[in-house]
Design a protein that fits this description.
The protein is mainly alpha-helical. The chain has two domains: about 40 residues, no CATH class; about 40 residues, no CATH class. The chain has four helices and no strands. It is elongated and about 65 Å long. The termini are far apart. About 0% of the residues are buried.
Length: about 80
Amino acid sequence: MDATLQIKSDLISKIKESKDLKLLKAIQAIFDASEQSPYQLSDEQKEAIEIGRNQIKNGEYSTNESVMAEMREWLKKK
């Protein structure tokens, strides 16, 4: 028996024998999560991403160095 089949068989046996509701719910949650797409974006989120990509293409962004320098200057004034 290959490793995948062995693991499946072991899991099925353990699940069938388990009376631990918390454990069974946790296993169910894992399966539920694995069936969903990891990223489900709203139309607004997709639009914001597209806007950001266009800004990058057009050079409309700040470098990390310039932002850090601006923050250091701001902190000096406080």
